[in-house]
Amino acid sequence: MNTPPSAKEKTDLRVEAYIKDWNWDAASHEFALQMGAFLLQFIDHLRSSGLSQETIRKHESNCWLIGAFECDYGYHDAFTPAVFLGGGPAFLYEFKRKVSTSEYALESYKSTWRKIKKYAGNLAHDNAGH
Q1: How far apart are CA 107 and CA 59, in angstroms?
Q2: Beta carbons of 37 and 15 less than 8 angstroms apart
Q3: Using 50, 70 and 90 to split pLDDT, how confident is the model at 126?
Q4: How many domains does the chain have?
Q5: Residue 24 maps to a domain
Q6: Which long-range contacts (CB under 8 A, 24 or more apart) does 74-82 make?
Q7: Residue 57 within any structural domain of the chain
Q8: What b-and-e string marks burial along 22-31, b requiring 16 or more CB atoms within 10 Å of the CB?
């Protein structure tokens, strides 16, 4: 008898599909899973914030790139939202080389990065019990 997938199974499948090209071994897969789950949670947060569909689509596209760049070039041992709390937008060189040299596209990417940073900061603050 086929039972419908649980909410967790649906979430797991959504994350696996999202991170499909972000990993190459077991350790990178675990990092990518956690990164993907975090970014999808962030996108869900954006969807509930009243932004236009066009703006959300741009952020979704940028989130995927940010996740891919973090997985490929980030050199992290483990995922935590704090990876976004360091400096400002990262992987600008990679974005220009692999995605677009358009100033508009670059500013959109940076805007998404700053929104993720703010979101991660709010999570850290909330988890600290403040």
Answers
A1: 11
A2: yes
A3: confident
A4: 1
A5: yes
A6: 76/31, 78/31, 78/34, 79/30, 79/31, 79/34, 79/35, 79/38, 81/38, 81/119, 81/120, 81/123, 81/124, 82/120, 82/124
A7: yes
A8: bbeeeeeeeb
Q: Is 2 a domain residue? A: no
Residue 85 lies in a domain: yes
Write the single-letter amino acid at 75.
Y
Domain assignment of residue 76, given as a range: 7-127
Residue 4's pLDDT is 67
Single-letter amino acid code for the residue at 93: Y
pTM as predicted: 0.88
Confidence of residue 75 (pLDDT cuts 50, 70, 90): confident
What value, to the nearest 5°, has the Cα angle with vertex 7 and ends 118 and 67? 35
Residues 6+ apart with CB under 8 A from 64: 18, 39
Token reading at 115: 């929104």
